[in-house]
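REVIEWER CHECKLIST
Item 1: Sequence provided? yes
Item 2: Single chain? yes
Item 3: Sequence as submitted:
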Amino acid sequence: MTTNPNPPFSFEVIAADPKTGARAGIFHTPHGDIETPVYMPVGTQATVKGLLPRDLKEAGAQIILSNTYHLYMRPGHEIVQKAGGLHKFMHWDRPILTDSGGFQVFSLAQLNKITDEGVWFHSHIDGSKHFFTPEKVMEIENALGADIIMQFDECSEYGADRDYARRALDRTVRWLERCAAAHGRPDQALFPIVQGNLYEDLRLESVAAARPFARYGIGIGGLSVGEPKPRMYEILDAMRPALPEDVPRYLMGVGSPDCLVEGVMRGIDMFDCVLATRIARNGTALTSKGKIVVRNAEYKEDFSPLDEECGCYCCRHYTKAYLRHLVNAGEILAATLLSLHNVTFLTGLMRGMREAILRGTLGEFREEFYARYAGAAEGKM
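Item 4: Structure as written out by the authors:
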C-alpha cells in the first residue's frame, strides 16, 4: 500500500467564463493530468463495452469510470488487488474513477434493504445475500486502487417526498463521515457526494456538509434520474454559488450532449454516462447534427460517412450503409464502431467547450451547438 503523504492530486483553474462560471482546468492525478471539462466513458466491469484501451485513447478518453458493485460481485476486489490493482488488471495506464455502489442500491431497490448501518442486498447474478457498509465500500475501493473513489451514499428517487429526501441526505452525511474515517490510501482521492433530491434547501445543506470532506473534488448525485432537464438545471443553478471553487465538480451519471453543454455552463468539470456505448449497441450514433438511428431504411444506400466532421476510425473508413448492414445483421463490429464514434464525439464536444472557455467564446459555442444539433433544444434554459 502506498504511504506517500503528499499524493499528486491538485486542481488548477486555467480560465473561467465570467458570465456563467464555466471553467477550464487541469486535475493532476497519480496516473496523469486530466484537462477539464471532461467526459468519462463508463467501463462498468473493468472494460468499456466493445472498445480496446487503445481505441479509447484514440477517441480522446482521459479517464474512465468503473463500478464498485459489479467488480465486487465478479471477479471480486481481492482478485483485482492480487492482479496489481485495477490499472494493471484492465491494462489502462490513465486515471480511473470508481463509484461506490450507491447508485446500484438505488437502481436495484427491489433487491435491497437500507438501514443506518448499511445496505443488505441480493446479488442480481445469483441471488446471494451481501451487506455493504461505508467501511466495506472503502475496503473494496481501496483494493481496486482507482485514482478517484466515491463515498457510499443513498440516492433518493425522482418524486421522493421531502421526508424521505431528508432521511437519505442525513444518512449520506453520516456515511460520508464513516467513509472518510475508513479510507486508508492517501494515493486515492475520496470525493463526497451531494444529495437532496430536487429540494434546493436540502441541496445547499448537503453541499455545506460535504465541503469539509471535499479535499480533492466533490460529486453531485441524484440528478438525471428521471426529472425534467430544466429542473436539473435549476438545481445546478441553485448549488453553483455554494460549491467549492478549488476542486473539480463532478455531475454523476450525466452524458447526453445537451446536458454536457448545460452542465459546463453551470461550472461542472466532470461527467460520466453509459449513454454513448449503450445507444451504440442499439444502432444509434451521436453526430454534429443530432442522433442518427443507422438501422433505419433511409440509410440503406447512404454511402456517406456517419459524420463528415468527425475524424474517428469509423467515420474515416465506413459509410452509413455499411453500418446499417452491420447493425441489422447483428454483427459485433457495429457496436464497436458506433461506440468508438460516440465516445469520440463526446470527448470532442468537451474539448471544444474547453477551447471556447480559453478563447472567451463559450456563449457563441453554445448557440452554434443548439443551432446545429437537431433536437438538442429540448430542455434548453
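Item 5: Key structural point noted by reviewer: The chain is about 40% helix and 15% strand.
Item 6: Recommendation: ____
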